[in-house]
Each structure stands twice: as structure tokens, then as C-alpha cells.
Amino acid sequence: MYLGRLVELASEEALFERPLHPYTVALIAAVPEPDPATRGRLAVLPGEIPSPLSPPPGCPFNTRCPKAEARCRAELPEFREVEAGRWVRCHFPG
Ligand code: SF4
Question: How much distance in Å is there from the Cα of 23 to the middle of ligand 1?
């Protein structure tokens, strides 16, 4: 969920193996690595988290999304089934 909206719905296996929404990708990249030998830098999303009371126009994630394009700033993506049992709220999933 991002700003109170579902952004991706999938089986646990599919979600972790191949996340399709950029926010899901960012969340998984931010999971700390417990083994110090393989520890790297955590991925941190740039930008401020918008207020859920006053989200930006278009996709609520567009102010922080590395894939954002003009359409993202103008049009709220629908929550749509992109594969059987796989739902994503993004104009450009995957
Ligand atoms: S719709 Fe655009 S801004 Fe929103 S998550 Fe998808 S690519 Fe990013």
C-alpha cells in the first residue's frame, strides 16, 4: 500500500521474485541484509512522502518514482490485473 491505496497484490512468491510496482521494488530493496559479509548500501527513495490528505495529481507515487513519466503526473492508474491473480496500480508495471 502507498498513501492508503493498494498498489500491488500477488502471491508471496511472485511478489518477492518479481515485484512489478516501483514502490514494491523499492520496499524489497530496502530490506536490511543481516549478514555483514554481504551487506551493501540500502536503497533509499528520494523525495518527500506526500500527505495522504493532499496527494499529488495522477499517480500518488509520482513524486518519488524513478520511472515516472508525464502520464503519471496527470492520470491516476487503475488497479488492474496484469497477470492471472496479479494486480498492480501502475501505468508501466515491471
Ligand atoms: S504510474 Fe508512473 S509514477 Fe506511478 S508507480 Fe507507475 S511508473 Fe511510477
Answer: 9
Q: How far is the CA of 91 from the centre of ligand 1 (A)?
A: 6
What are 15-71's pLDDT values in tens digits?
999 999 999 999 998 888 888 777 666 677 888 889 999 999 999 999 999 999 999
Q: Which of 72, 79, 89 to mutate to test the pocket of ligand 1 (most atoms within 8 A of CB)?
A: 72
What range defines the domain where residue 15 resides? 1-28+54-94
In a domain, 46, yes or no: no
pLDDT, residue 78, reads 98
Non-local CB neighbours of 14 within 8 Å, separated by 6+ positions: 86
Does residue 87 sit within a domain?
yes
Q: Does residue 42 belong to any structural domain of this protein?
A: no
CA distance 44 to 33: 14
